Structure formats: C-alpha cells, structure tokens
Amino acid sequence: MADQAREEEAIRGVVDRLSSAFSATHSPEEIAAAVAKAHATFSERPVCEFVPVLVERKARVILNESIR
C-alpha cells in the first residue's frame, strides 16, 4: 500500500512538472490525460520504482507530438 501511495504521489509530481513545461500549449486536462495514458501502459509491469520516470518520458512524447 505504501508503494502505491508513493507511486501516486510521484505521478502527481509528473503532472505538475509537465503542467509547467506545457502550459503554453496544452490544457491541464490534456496534460493529465497524457500522463494517464502513459501511466496505463505501465500498470501491469512488475518493477514500479521507475514507473513515474517512464510515465513522464512517455507523456512528454505524447504532448510534443500533439504540438506538431
């Protein structure tokens, strides 16, 4: 349970960082959706420690692609 709480906190941090980075081009809802989409791809993975880092990278790709 503690691991899940830490992961959720880290994912909130991802949303916060990406909100700062993409606020000029994306709404908060779009950013949250990109993070949720990226996070869903890792939901069944056995190693959870790196999930927030991987989610942030994947969400950045999603957000950058939608700018073009």
Automatic annotation (TrEMBL):
Top-level taxon: Bacteria
Protein name, per record: Uncharacterized protein
